[in-house]
Write a structure and sequence with these properties.
With 503 residues, the chain is of the alpha/beta class. The chain is built from 21 helices and 21 strands.
Length: 503
Amino acid sequence: MTIVPVDDVWIRIDCEDHEAQELSSFFTFDIPGAQYMPAYRKKNWSGKIRLFKLRGHLLYRGLLSRLMTFAAQQGYQVTNEVPIAKPLYPDTLDDWVNAQPLPVVPREHQVVALRALLNTHRGIVLSPTGSGKSLIIHLLTQALDVPTLIVVPTTGLVAQLTADFVSYGVDPDRIQTIQAGRPKARQAPIVISTWQSIYQLPIEYFADYPCVMVDEVHLAKSSSLVGLMAKCLATPYRFGFTGTLDDTHAHRLILEGLFGDVTQVTTTHDLVEQQQLSPLRVKMCVIKYPVSVCKDMRRALYPDEVEYLVTSPQRLDIIAKTAIATKGNVLVLFNFVEKHGIPLFERIQHLVVGRDVHFVHGGVPSDERERIRLWVEQNDNQIIVASFGTFSTGVNIPNLSTLIFASPAKSKIRVLQSIGRTLRLSHGKTHATLLDFVDDLRVGSSVNHVFRHAEQRVQYYATERFPYTLHEYDVEMWLRLLSTSVAKSLQSAPSDAGDSKVG
């Protein structure tokens, strides 16, 4: 077996047919939930992803280390003709970092990430919200000093990253931003763009960039990200950054194939221990529904169950009154704009006195979202009602003290990225609070869909070492509590009575 470099995206494996079949099997994975996808239902797709191309014997270059491990396990004789990356600044990196004119001192984990990427010329940094990924990206651009394309998921992050670079001392004339309607041809050494603005550009466009970085790499749709990175044939420096990776093996291997191995440089728990992030208190606010409702919903499909919950007037009242009873800046996250977000926003507006209430969803222009973000950052006692898709990732509001999950969430990435919005340090902020509403429609041995999702979230909290408590009341009791002084601040609890540790 001989491994031959094709370009900066692909390697070719020259091998016997039976070895190719074994490689194909090893790099083939089932996609979770494929049976629900239209292509699978129409029998246009097997529900599997195949990372090794039998036609041409091609594999993503970033999977070389996994290929070598597999070959060793199988006892294959391997000739590897792929050149090994020469580490940059192998002995002088610390001195180089210390010599940079920065307004902040880089933290240890930031230097660890920088060294790992400069040693291998490619890779993914797994580092949570608040760990300073923008400084790592900046230091990479300075250390490499080559034309660099930085891809982010939203226009808000284009503006935020640009502002961060300027704060680190970069001349604004060295930065070009690409958004809708702006020129795309490179006019500066550092180009920052949303992936939506460039992923359909021809392959020739990307030949101008020896370095490509993708921030919040988990957010780009797989097909779009693959399409974009597969065009970077002559891009030896390729880096991804994220705070959270999907638990699915296939998703991780796609990202590794495009960028290289994953390096985790720190954790949220470590940053909290180092007093670089706010401690988080999770309160599982369980709403118990009447037995008659539970029986009616016992055999409901997931969409029907969610439809009932997000349109329930009583549940709407509970969440609206909870947001109002909670002091400080509050972010309320929902899934469905028309049937949940709008009614929730209108209900809060109707009940609240003396507080600003803001509404953010995909239809709100990016400049208006930024205006709201800045207003909340500069003021206190604000309420933001926002969709998960717009405010769960990449939004920096340090003085945000409380997060409310108004819609059931299952995705690990969505849950942890959303939590990251509350963890940044701010003057006078002692901790952050997550109010996670759990809908209990259990009856007998039957467990409803969103309750199972809540059980998954508890596993995420346990893994991240977030302390959590249980607050369990029926619908009417929740409404009574929220109508009394007992619930004026849910940062403490809806009621000290009824608190119990989970797990």
